[in-house]
Design brief:
alpha+beta, 6-stranded antiparallel β-sheet, two-stranded antiparallel ribbon, 18 helices
Length: 498
Amino acid sequence: MTPTARTAPATLTHRFADAVPEMAVAWRADAPPAPALLVLDDALATELGLDPAFLRTPAGLAFLTGTALPDGAQPVAQAYAGHQFGGYNPRLGDGRALLLGELTARDGATHDLHLKGSGPTPFARGGDGYAAVGPMLREYVVSEAMHALGIPTTRALAVVATGRDVVREQILPGAVLVRTASSHLRVGSVVFANATGDRDVLERLVDHAIERHDPGIDPETAAATPTDRARALLDVVIARQADLIARWMLVGFVHGVMNTDNMTLSGETIDYGPCAFLDAFDPGAVFSSIDRQGRYAYGNQPGIGEWNLARLAEALLPLLADDTDAAISVAQDALDAYRPAYNEAWSAGIREKLGIGAPDARRDEDAVPALVSDLFDLLAVSRADYTLFFRHLATAARGDAKPLRSLVADAGPLDLWLARWLALAPDPEAMDRVNPLYIPRNHLVEEALAAASDTGDLTLLHRLTDAVRSPFTERLGLERYAEPAPDAFGPYVTYCGT
C-alpha cells in the first residue's frame, strides 16, 4: 500500500528481530522536545513508498523520529561486536541508533528504516545517545554524493533537528538522522552471533542475511546445508567488499573508521563520521582525529578490507566445516579470492578513468600497468589535486594540457607521461562520464555544516548537495564547487560525532 498524504506507512516489518531475537533489544526512541525538519530527500521518500507531504507534517516528524510508529512496529537496538582499530570489543551494538523496522519500497525491495542519534540504548556504554546537527548533515550530503557517484551506500532520508542541546567539546544543536539501507547487517553482527556460542543463532543470522541480500543463491547447491550457505555468504560478501573498496579508491574516498562493525554484508558504505575525499593526492592521507597511527589511511583501505573479511571468515568457521582445520582451509580458500577481485575491479576502474577502456589486443597491454604505476608515483610526488587531475586529463586528451600542467610544480615528468598515455588514444567523453567534477570537498562541507550549526542557515548545504547530486556534468554557476581548497585550509581533521 502506498501511503496517501498525511498518513504513515501501513506497516514496518520486523524481520531481523524475528529471525535473531537474541541480537535485538526492544527499545523506543527518545521524544525530541522540539522536532523540526532540516532536510528531506523527496525522491528517496517516494522510492520507499513514503509521502513527502506527510513527512513534513507534525505526524510525519513523529514518524521520522520514531515516536509515533504504525501498529505492530517493533523498534530494536541491534547487537553486534566490532574490532575497533584492531582491538576486539565483544559488545558494541546500536548505542545511539535504532532499527525502526523494514519498509517495502515501490520496486518490492526491502529497506531498513534506521535512526541515528535517537537516544541512549542498553548498548550506549555511558554515552548520551544523541547526535549533533553537523555530523548528521555530513552523513546526508556525503551519502548523497556517494550514491550519485554510483557507489553502494546507505542513504539519508532525512535529518530532523531535535531542539535538544548536545554536549561535546562545546554545546551543539541536536539532530536525528533517518537512514535507510538494504540492511544494517555487518561483519560485527556475524562476529557477535558466533561469540554467543550458540550455533543456531549463527545459522539463523546467515539464513537471514541470505534471505535479505542473496535470495537467488541456487537452492540446489549453496542453500543445501548450513555449511554451503555459510560459504556462499562468505563468497558474496568478499566479492562485494572488494568491489566497494576499489570504488572508494578510484574516487579518492577515505572512510576513516573501517572497524568491522562498519563493514556491511550488503556491500554498502556505512557510517560517514570521520570521512573525507582526497584533495592533494597522498596515499598516507588520514582525516580521523582518533586514527593516530594511520591504520585507516587512504592507501591502507584495501588491506584493511581484507583484514576485516578475515574476521568474518573466522566467525563463520563453526559452519564452514565440522573439523577446525578443514574449516580454516575453506575460509582461506574463500579469502584468497579477495585480492584478485579487488585488483580486477580497481584495474577496470582505472582504465575507465584514463579513457582507455577494456584491454585491447591491438595495444601493448604490458605498457598499461607501468603507465598506471608511474601515474600514481607522479601524483604522490606532485601532490596534485586528485579529482581535478582526472578532469583536466580529459581536457588534455582534447588537445589542451595547460589546465593539467597547472596542477604540478614540474611539468617535465608529466609531459613525458602524457606522451605515453596519448599514444593509447584515450576517449575524453568516456573519461568525463566516470571522473567527477563535483565532490563534497572538505572545505565546502565544513563551510556548509558551520552555517547550519551556528546560524541554522541551510543555503550552503543545499547548494553543495545540488552540486554533488550531478557530479559528472559541468554547470554554470558552480565553479567554486570544482575548485581545490584554499591554501589556508587544513590540515583537515574530522571527528566521529560522539
